[in-house]
Amino acid sequence: MKYGTVLFDIDGTLIDSNDAHAEAWVRAFAEEQVAVSRTDVRRAIGMGGDKLMPSVSGIEEDSPRGRAISKRRGEIFLEELLPHLRPFTDSHQLVAALKERGYTMVAASSAKRDELRKLLKIAGASALLDSSTSSDDANNSKPDPDIVNAALRQAKALPREAVMIGDTPYDIAAATRAGVDVIAFRCGGWSDSDLGGAIAIYDGPWDLLQQLDASPLKARR
After folding, report:
1. Cβ atoms within 10 Å, residue 38
2. 72: domain CATH number?
3. pLDDT tens digits along 47-60
4. Which stretch of DSSP H or E encloses residue 98?
5. What is the dihedral of CA 146, 150, 152, 155, to 10 degrees?
6. Is the distance from CB of 19 to CB of 43 less than 8 angstroms?
7. What pLDDT is attached to residue 221?
8. Fewer C-beta within 10 Å: the chain N or C terminus?
């Protein structure tokens, strides 16, 4: 009731894409003969690539090798994996229901701008969101708050007026550091203990949609 703005993470929140992102990273590292743990990569999905790479491999993204791996990851994801991605059940319907209730809605994603544009189309959210922010709009990626702060500026909203919907601990950390409450989804592959700090946790878009009138996003007055 106190919120006027909803900030949406996209990957793992509206689209079942976290495993595909992990696959793209693992394959890009392997092509450069860099051995990484698939489990570690999967648990780092939701961070920006600038943080994921040194976390799982010790390689900095702005190094020559890092730039080559990052470029190849993008190619694998966009050309080979993204065409097969699907939205979670009721992703479009949830965004449409919140739009109908009068919320200002902005994407707050760690994806690159060109990836985000295509992901929003898959989610059926392109025409419903008021604006979007990507990793290109922030100096520091999640779990730093820069992307969330950029989304707040796009929405012309104060932190206390907004709530973020995300699926990873990095979404929660970024939003919390920006002073924004978080609703978390389990569909990205994280447990409730991983999602501590969220004001509410749902299975995914379909679950929140079913419980919308009893949720923190119930009809505005």
Report:
1. 14
2. 1.10.150
3. 989 999 999 999 99
4. helix 91-100
5. -170
6. no
7. 52
8. C
